[in-house]
Amino acid sequence: MASLRVALCVALLAPAAALQLSARSPLRRSAVARHAAPSPAPPPAAASAAAGLKRRVAGLGRAAATGRFGRAGAAGPLAASVSISDESKAGRVIPLLSFIGLWYAFNAFFNVQNKLILNQFPYPWVVSWFQLASGLLFVLPMWFTKLRAPPKVDRSLVLKFLPIAALHCGGHGLQVSSMGAGSVFFTHVIKATEPVIGTLVLLAFTGKIAPWWVNACLTPIVGGVAYAAFKPGTSFPLSDLVGYASLAALGSTVAFSIAKLLAKSLMGKETKQKYNLTAPNNYAFLTICSTTLLLLPSALGEGGAALAAFQQMPDQLAFARQLVACGFLYYGYNEMGFRVLDLLSPVSAAVANSLKRVAILLAAVLFLGEQVSTRKIIGSSVAMGGVLLYSLAKTKASKLPPKPVEIEVAVEKPGTWQP
């Protein structure tokens, strides 16, 4: 109410102030004196109404200057604006904290359930397809019932998404197969090299590279991963880095890094607005395309053996429920991740993403009982710290003003050119 009265006061005072300033102008006075005819005196009723309006405007002006509008606005317009600002901040922080909590919880329990499923059903590509397809059971009803406005899909949008979806489903399949072949803990230690892979991918495809002091922050990442994988006393101390689990995790990281680069180049702000690609819709449509692309390869590669193994299970319905629930966790943590990163600043997003990996590593130890040596704990801690340091340095570098480009133009002197 106080803000409304202030707005009314401004609306009433602005025309009067403008008229008063124009009346004081010497050009205005001379123009009026030369061209304006003398106006007749207003009638008594109009004069009294004008005097009453003048008194009201003066009263509102004093109230605006002192911030006193009676009981409702005793604290003045400043307090009203502060309370509105506090309400808007609270309305933003509460959903953000909820999204972060769900993001961490879904991510940690997905990794736990995924490992439990692979222990009894070692067909990672079929499991990957079911995890992607389970997300459709959530998003398609939301679109059909209009609880969520669907994206505007046409042939052009599908063609833009296909290469990103191919990389996404390939990266997800490699990630799942890596966790099936090795431990969840070590898979995510390897995936901590994402900044290193992302830097190399950016350099290979665009020729761009960050400043040296940003790339220097990659050193603890590489060193931490190598220290965690080191096995003293063996013929090849870094044998864990060339095993299938490590190579699959690296391949997954490469696929996701290229997909992220393509998404940034193809999915600009105008494209997202044109097709209603909000953060949830963006990931939902990516899931649809990825599910479609992965169906045939997973069926041809593991479909027959996976079906035979499923038919021999004593409780097929319980396993099917577990598989679908794991898919819901996978879809949920990705959608929550899209929502969180859409609300946070780059620095806050870097911190949140680093803490997410810590939550996964803790879940692997607590719920899966994975044995972790002191060397792996130290190496993973150094690598995670390097990821955070690199993310913060990269954010700072992005805020620096661009360097001026000097262009030299060679001018030929007259008479020196030879045909």
From TrEMBL:
Q: Which UniProt keywords apply?
A: Membrane, Signal, Transmembrane, Transmembrane helix
Q: Where does the signal peptide begin and end?
A: 1-18
Localization per Swiss-Prot or TrEMBL: Membrane
Q: Where is the Sugar phosphate transporter domain?
A: 96-391
Which InterPro entries does the record match to this protein?
Answer: EmrE-like, Sugar_P_trans_dom, TPT_transporter
Spell out where the chain crosses the membrane: 93-110, 122-144, 185-205, 212-230, 242-263, 283-310
State the annotated membrane topology for this chain: Multi-pass membrane protein
The protein, known as: Solute carrier family protein
Organism (species)? Aureococcus anophagefferens (Harmful bloom alga)
